[in-house]
């Protein structure tokens, strides 16, 4: 077996151009899969990260039928007694109409999402406050933070401007209140509250005539892997209430379902690309067989069996696969490292959430290695069909 491997290496390395071409084919196939994974999986994970950080937390608690009528303090205290929980905060949502006078002109906007937050708890459970690029976060009952797109649609609202907000309460009555803009929120990729207005939760409760009611609780964990465990514990602790508790994967399922399908399709395209590299190996191996006709004839003349010839060329496929998998994986890891360290984004949009998925990395390397061996089977079989006399005659 050892002499066959030495022969395979000698025959392969004597044709350095063919070897480099075959290794490049495998390397490019692996690199394409790594690049696709970094970009598309990184974008998917970034969206999940921002939904978790800005809107849903690691666990989102809502009521099955209506608003939650238990006190904020009791729910928050219950969660924060659990060691895995970092913080919990209440939120209330509605839709508003807004208008403001800018340069003597009245500008009106309708159907703007408005979120009521607890300023003291929200900064611990979410990172929305970090997206305030101008001014400060909500700090009083008459202050409002406008998303950058809302501020733009209102004619370029700025910190210190006065905005009139209309909300329809639970009885269908219009409630109007004037707010002072305390900040403008702008998040990378617009995944935050760029299209939303943020006010104090008690102010929104007054306007909606829902004193004491809460729309949802956003729960942030210091160990997100414990989300399912904490969620189940919460539901068991309140069996007589109509609570719905969802992990980030469950609460954002509708938003992420289409994206998952897209990632699966991109991965499939990547593996088709890897199969194309296998065809390149077949072509190169066939060229090696044709170029080694004399050597094959000599080996057969001195007693080498067809099995020996088959094994020699399969060894060549294994060598190509091993080198290509190694170089391709190294190139892919290099690209991943670069994307992670530079916090890669496109056109200053959403920064990718880049991770090293070792299971995926090993799977890709093994797949390319196996495909290289499979691709060498037909050329190896062709080599065994050469008869010694016929092989020598072609020289």
Automatic annotation (TrEMBL):
Membrane topology: Multi-pass membrane protein
Residue ranges constituting the ABC3 transporter permease C-terminal domain according to the UniProt record: 268-386
Record InterPro entries: ABC3_permease_C, Lipoprotein-release_system, MacB_PCD
Residue ranges constituting the MacB-like periplasmic core domain according to the UniProt record: 22-231
Keyword Iron: no
Membrane-spanning residues: 20-44, 268-289, 310-338, 358-378
Broad class of the protein's primary localization: membrane
This protein's name: ABC transporter permease
Organism of provenance: Candidatus Nitrosopumilus koreensis AR1
Organism placement in taxonomy: Archaea, Nitrososphaerota, Nitrososphaeria, Nitrosopumilales, Nitrosopumilaceae
């Amino acid at each position: 077996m050892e002499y066959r491997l030495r022969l395979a290496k000698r025959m392969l390395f004597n044709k350095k151009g063919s070897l480099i071409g075959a290794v490049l084919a495998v390397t490019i196939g692996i690199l394409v899969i790594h690049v696709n994974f970094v970009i598309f999986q990184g974008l998917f994970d970034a969206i999940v990260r921002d939904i978790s950080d800005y809107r849903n937390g690691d666990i989102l608690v809502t009521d099955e039928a209506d608003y939650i009528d238990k006190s904020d303090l009791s729910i928050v205290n219950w969660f924060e007694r659990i060691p895995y929980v970092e913080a919990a905060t209440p939120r209330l949502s509605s839709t508003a109409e807004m208008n403001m006078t800018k340069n003597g002109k009245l500008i009106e906007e309708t159907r703007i999402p408005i979120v009521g937050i607890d300023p003291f708890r929200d900064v611990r459970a979410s990172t929305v406050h970090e997206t305030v690029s101008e001014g400060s976060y909500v700090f009083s009952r008459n202050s409002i933070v406008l998303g950058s797109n809302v501020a733009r649609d209102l004619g370029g609202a700025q910190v210190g401007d006065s905005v009139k907000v209309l909300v329809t309460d639970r009885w269908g009555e219009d409630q109007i209140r004037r707010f002072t803009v305390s900040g403008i929120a702008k998040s990378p990729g617009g995944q935050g509250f760029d299209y939303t207005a943020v006010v104090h939760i008690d102010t929104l409760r007054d306007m909606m005539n829902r004193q004491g009611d809460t729309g949802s609780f956003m729960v942030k964990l210091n160990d997100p892997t414990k989300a399912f465990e904490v969620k189940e514990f919460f539901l068991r602790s309140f069996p007589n209430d109509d609570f719905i508790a969802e992990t980030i994967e469950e609460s954002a399922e509708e938003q992420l379902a289409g994206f998952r399908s897209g990632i699966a399709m991109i991965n499939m395209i990547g593996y088709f690309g890897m199969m194309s590299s296998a065809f390149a190996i077949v072509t190169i191996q066939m060229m090696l067989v044709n170029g080694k006709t004399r050597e094959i004839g000599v080996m057969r003349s001195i007693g080498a069996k067809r099995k020996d010839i088959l094994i020699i060329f399969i060894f060549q496929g294994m060598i190509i696969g091993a080198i290509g998998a190694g170089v391709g994986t190294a190139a892919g890891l290099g690209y991943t490292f670069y994307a992670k360290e530079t916090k890669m984004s496109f056109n200053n949009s959403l920064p990718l959430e880049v991770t090293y998925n070792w299971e995926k990395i090993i799977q890709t390397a093994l797949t390319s290695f196996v495909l290289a061996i499979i691709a060498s089977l037909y050329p190896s079989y062709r080599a065994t069909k050469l008869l010694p006399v016929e092989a020598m005659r072609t020289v």
